[in-house]
Design a protein that fits this description.
mainly alpha, 342 residues
Length: 342
């Protein structure tokens, strides 16, 4: 493929994310006075900045510790071993399109510590499952524990609670009977999903088999308890970062709302988005906090403050870890092609 066609294809792939970002920015800025936003930022309580730095550090330490626990049956690594690839992956999400960060950290860990990439990928799949369960739980708690919201939001909380219970039951069943579940899934793919190309069906089965291969950690009580605890606590820490951001900009009585903001962000970022989730975070803040009657100017200012903490230090640390690993940015920028060829 020529350079011109390659660039055109890259722009086409970016288009959905840019559309999502544009829509989110419109939602965030439609009722905002930019002068007031700047004024809010100028009068912010910067004394809370050290707390934000501490919470950010705790969040990534918990994420690295959980990943180490998931990887323990595959390779006995320590937190420092996995922290570098983890931060490189988050840096990649901030500067590269198409959510490449997960593939990047799988690639980097496999290359720097000689760990089978398929096994590493299975732990990333499991991370997503535990994150989803923790997010749904915190989102439900936030909706039920805050001010009385309209009935449609209360119904949403009940729905989330039911969804969490169903997912938890499915996860427990899969852990206890992984082989049988895999055979049933393969039968469903071959009998009920015949309209899909065979390679897609094989890919789905291989993906589930990869996840099943990482379930060894969940069959060890110590590892399972640590993984579950880290999943819940790290998202609670992220909610505290949202809360501190809002407090920094002068909002009050927004703790329950912070839990909801984190839950919504975690779900929406699964959609196509530009590098660094520009606009997406601002839109999530605005939509959620409008339900709690928070001043839109405070909301946007707080979202910018929160976003800067998620972007600047994380990107800088990721670039430093990339330099320490001996890899170059172009090595991870082409990881998708490398993964497909491997």
């Amino acid at each position: 493929m020529g350079d011109g066609r390659r660039r055109s294809w890259q722009l086409i792939k970016l288009a959905p994310g840019l559309l999502v970002a544009g829509g989110c920015l419109w939602l965030a800025l439609r009722d905002v006075d930019r002068t007031m936003v700047v004024a809010r930022l100028s009068s912010a309580n910067w004394a809370l900045a050290p707390l934000m730095a501490l919470l950010l550090l705790v969040f990534f330490w918990l994420k690295a510790w959980r990943w180490r626990l998931l990887l323990e049956p595959v390779s006995p690594l320590n937190v420092r071993d996995v922290a570098g690839p983890l931060m490189i992956g988050f840096m990649a999400n901030n500067i590269l399109p198409a959510h490449l960060g997960e593939l990047v950290r799988v690639h980097v860990l496999g290359r720097t510590h000689d760990v089978p990439r398929a096994a590493v990928l299975s732990t990333v799949v499991l991370e997503r499952l535990f994150d989803l369960l923790a997010i749904l739980a915190l989102l439900g708690v936030g909706l039920l524990s805050g001010p009385v919201l309209p009935s449609r939001y209360q119904q949403a909380a009940v729905t989330l609670a039911v969804a969490t219970c169903v997912l938890l039951a499915a996860a427990v069943t899969f852990v206890c009977a992984a082989d049988r579940c895999l055979r049933i899934f393969e039968w469903v793919c071959n009998r009920c999903l015949v309209f899909l190309p065979q390679r897609w069906r094989l890919g789905l089965v291989e993906l589930l088999a990869s996840a099943a291969g990482g379930l060894v950690a969940l069959k060890r009580p110590r590892l399972a308890m640590g993984i579950v605890a880290a999943s819940v606590v790290k998202w609670f820490v992220m909610a505290l970062m949202v809360w501190v951001s809002l407090k920094t900009l002068g909002a009050v009585d927004v703790f329950a709302a912070s839990l909801v903001v984190v839950g919504v962000i975690a779900v929406v970022i699964l959609l196509p988005a530009p590098p660094g989730y520009v606009g997406v975070i601002q839109g999530c803040f605005s939509v959620v906090l409008a339900m709690y009657a928070v001043d839109p100017n405070v909301t946007v200012a707080a979202s910018v403050y929160y976003h800067l903490w998620q972007y600047v230090p994380v990107t800088l640390v990721g670039l430093w870890c990339l330099h320490r690993s001996g890899l170059r940015l172009r090595d991870v920028a082409g990881v998708q092609t490398d993964a497909q060829s491997g």
